[in-house]
């Protein structure tokens, strides 16, 4: 399901809501607590159905989609490193501390100069959304943390943030949970 084109739609995934945004508009979908609550999927079929119904009602179909993970759904640790350090041990230690079961936990490591950035997510959470969006003929080109775009501590996507996400393909290549592990 991975495509090399630019996204036309952003799905901003927060702890209890999903925002569908493009250059013209934004639509919010509050996730019912009966289907998902605080990163825990209670009813996967119900979550999928909620998203599919929203997509059908708002004609969200046949789009190139980037799923952007809000800071509140990503566990993060930044470690200063030196060239002679074994980062594998640091990744293992971080992974063991991410408070998710091994079946749903996914960790991504990004090396920048003298830093190792470790990111952990509940992959079942975004995979359910990927599946639901695919059923409405959307093509998912990435699942990327918001911080990879240099955007932090926001309550809504402003025009500048939307433009940055839709035009900057770098994070799709370097911080994409669909292609990195």
Keywords:
single chain; 181 residues; alpha+beta; 5-stranded mixed beta sheet; 3-stranded antiparallel beta sheet; 5 helices; globular
Describe this structure in words.
This protein is α+β, with helices and mostly antiparallel strands. The protein is built from five helices and ten strands; from the N terminus they run E-E-E-E-E-H-E-E-H-E-E-H-E-H-H. The chain has helices at residues 44-57, 87-97, 123-135, 159-167, 170-174; strands at residues 9-13, 17-21, 26-30, 36-37, 40-41, 64-69, 75-80, 105-112, 115-122, 139-145. It has a five-stranded mixed beta sheet with strand order 3-2-1-6-10, with helices on both faces. The protein has a three-stranded antiparallel beta sheet with strand order 7-9-8. Strands 4-5 form a two-stranded antiparallel sheet. A hairpin with a 2-residue loop joins strand 4 (36-37) and strand 5. Helix 1 packs across helix 3 (123-135). The longest helix has 14 residues, at 44-57. The two termini are 16 Å apart. The mean pLDDT is 89.
Report, as a whole number of angstroms, the end-to-end distance: 16 Å
| Count of helix runs | 5
| Poorly predicted residue ranges | none
Main-sheet strand order equals 3-2-1-6-10
Report helical residue fraction: 25-40%
Largest sheet: 5 strands, mixed
What percent of residues are in strands?
25-35%
Summarize, please:
This protein is α+β, with helices and mostly antiparallel strands.
Fold blueprint:
Blueprint: E1 9-13, E2 17-21, E3 26-30, E4 36-37, E5 40-41, H1 44-57, E6 64-69, E7 75-80, H2 87-97, E8 105-112, E9 115-122, H3 123-135, E10 139-145, H4 159-167, H5 170-174
Parallel strand pairs: 1-6, 6-10
Antiparallel strand pairs: 1-2, 2-3, 4-5, 7-9, 8-9
């Amino acid at each position: 399901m991975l495509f090399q084109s630019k996204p036309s739609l952003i799905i901003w995934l927060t702890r209890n809501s999903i925002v569908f945004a493009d250059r013209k508009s934004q639509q919010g979908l509050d996730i019912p607590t009966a289907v998902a609550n605080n990163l825990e999927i209670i009813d996967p079929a119900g979550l999928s159905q909620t998203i599919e119904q929203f997509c059908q009602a708002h004609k969200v179909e046949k789009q190139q989609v980037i799923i952007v993970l809000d800071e509140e759904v990503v566990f993060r640790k930044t470690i200063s490193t030196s060239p002679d350090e074994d980062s594998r041990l640091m990744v293992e230690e971080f992974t063991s501390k991410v408070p998710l079961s091994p079946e749903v936990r996914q960790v991504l490591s990004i090396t920048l100069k003298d830093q190792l950035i470790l990111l952990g997510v509940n992959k079942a959470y975004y995979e359910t959304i990927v599946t639901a969006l695919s059923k409405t003929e959307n093509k998912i080109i990435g699942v990327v943390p918001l911080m990879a775009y240099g955007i932090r501590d926001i309550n809504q996507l402003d025009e500048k943030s939307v433009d940055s996400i839709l035009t900057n393909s770098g994070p799709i290549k370097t911080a994409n949970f669909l292609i990195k592990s």
